[in-house]
């Protein structure tokens, strides 16, 4: 064949070499284009593995989730194009938060910036209760070892259903399409979809926290405190709810925004321009950010952030 590196009469062993050469050609054509670092790849891959394996185990404890993942790594993850965005968002948010923890020693605070209520206090204010629920939802986004993950409740429902069906199809293929097993897995898929619809995810917690602050006319103060104390989950939650966006979409918008775009992204929070300084500084220190938001050098449009 033309343009081949293989000597005449010798076939290439597989499609791997042409694919690698195509990838190299794309890189040489645009060597300065932003590309994933090994850290970003490893984080995103780990997050994808954890969410796929968790869903598989919930769908059917009899599924060997580790074998499933290894087969998908070898053959290609079926929903890769759609799974990439939430995994990348979670990975970049994790890198940002880890950097902030390493560079600053910020005291633990409550929702409005005061000390957290004493353990002996019988009741919480509506704001503190909503902030606590936000922290609990955020806690589900880490595994037992503290690694970043995506809780099934936080996945887009369409993507969640796609993953369920792909996993069920893989399992049926292993057992040669047993009809009884197929019906059982179908019922399990429907049951998990219903469970996800009522599960307390990060987006619902973010909306409740935002609503509680608006009711108390404390939104701007809480957002300013979140920035000052590098409480990025709280800030992302408030900005997302203010724009009617998903948490993961707002995380990506903030992480890919040029400094000049931040006031627009956070305008609904009614922050003073000076209050953004710690946020701008923190983002500027994060290496290998996907900035600017598109090839033309423009920030991510708000229309693409809103869910």
Word description of this protein:
The structure is a single chain. By secondary structure, this protein is an all-alpha fold. The chain has one domain (38-305). The protein has 14 helices and no strands. It is flat and about 60 Å long.
Q: Could you list some keywords that capture this structure?
A:
disordered N terminus, 307 residues, flat, disordered C terminus, 0% strand, 60% helix, mainly alpha
Short description:
This protein has 14 helices and no strands.
Helix-strand string:
HHHHHHHHHHHHHH
**Dominant shape:** flat
Helix content: 55-70%
Please count the beta strands (DSSP E, at least 2 residues each).
0
Give the overall pLDDT as a whole number. 86
The class by helix and strand makeup works out as: mainly alpha
The separation of the N and C termini measures: 47 Å
Total of domains: 1
Enumerate the spans where pLDDT stays under 50 for 5 or more consecutive residues: 1-8, 107-120, 293-307
The Cα radius of gyration reads 22 Å
Strand content: under 5%
The major β-sheet equals: none
- The number of helical segments is 14
Blueprint (SSEs and pairs):
Layout: H1 16-29, H2 38-59, H3 65-75, H4 80-103, H5 126-139, H6 157-174, H7 179-198, H8 202-215, H9 219-228, H10 232-243, H11 247-255, H12 262-265, H13 277-285, H14 302-305
Helix pairs in contact: 2-3, 2-4, 2-6, 4-11, 5-8, 6-7, 8-10, 9-10, 10-11
